[in-house]
Design a protein that fits this description.
Layout lengths: L3 E6 L6 H18 L4 E6 L5 H7 L6 E5 L16 H6 L4 E4 L2 H6 L4 H13 L3 E6 L3 H5 L3 H13 L4 H4 L3 E4 L13 H19 L1 H6 L2 E4 L7 H5 L6 E4 L6 H8 L3
Parallel strand pairs: 1-2, 1-8, 2-3, 3-4, 4-5, 5-6, 6-7, 7-8
Helix pairs in contact: 1-12, 5-7, 7-9
Bound molecules: 1,3-dihydroxyacetonephosphate (13P).
The site of 1,3-dihydroxyacetonephosphate (13P) has 14 residues, from strand 8.
Amino acid sequence: MRRKIAAGNWKMNKTLEEGKALTSEVMNMIEDEIRDDVKIVLCPPFIHLTTLQGLLKGKNQISLGAQNCSEHASGAYTGEISAPMLQSIGVEYVILGHSERREYYGESNELLAKKLNIALENNLTPIFCCGEPLQIREKDMQTEYVRKQIQASLFHLSQNDVARIVIAYEPIWAIGTGKTATTDQAQEMHATIRKQITEKYGQETANNISILYGGSVKPDNAKELFACMDVDGGLIGGASLKSRDFVDIAKSF
Ligand code: 13P
């Protein structure tokens, strides 16, 4: 059975005090409100991770994720954070290949293949993001586009390793725009991704990989999205910055 996940990507938001308050609120609310089989992942900015890790001690339902990591293990890479560092403070997940990293920081499919390797070597669970820009969707070429992203970054991995990742489909035109993919659009792409994994790694591996949807997930659309057969949860941006909204989304399974 694949895991149901509600992951909050805070992006570059929240001071430390604000982040602590948000985390405490989420912790208190999930106690009685969220199903035990739903995994909550909070992905704050790097510098908050250690403090929040302390706050979350003993709360196994909530894990921490980073929003990125270096493709190198250590060395002269000023300003970078490595996968071994994240592992050393108890971080369990790392978002890789978010469209904002691809677009503003030039991250290519090939670079992401290296980041996936080092994340897996350090026992982090990558949340690998893929998704097409608006121009591609308008030409109805989204399937080829996303298939290429997956093939170029994931298909060097062994079956064991691919089974350890989470995929997030985030159509770029739906991120931060309030324009969510329809349930048909989300389900169609998620099924396509699962089929592609099946072709390469077999049915069992594909059936066990969680595929999250991201892009303007809100409390009022989460239920219908999460009800889609191949949608196993969400990667939530804006709505993860408000505890009530985020927990309401996590309750939508
Ligand atoms: P929004 O939920 O703000 O659209 O952001 C989605 C996202 O980019 C999550 O990684």
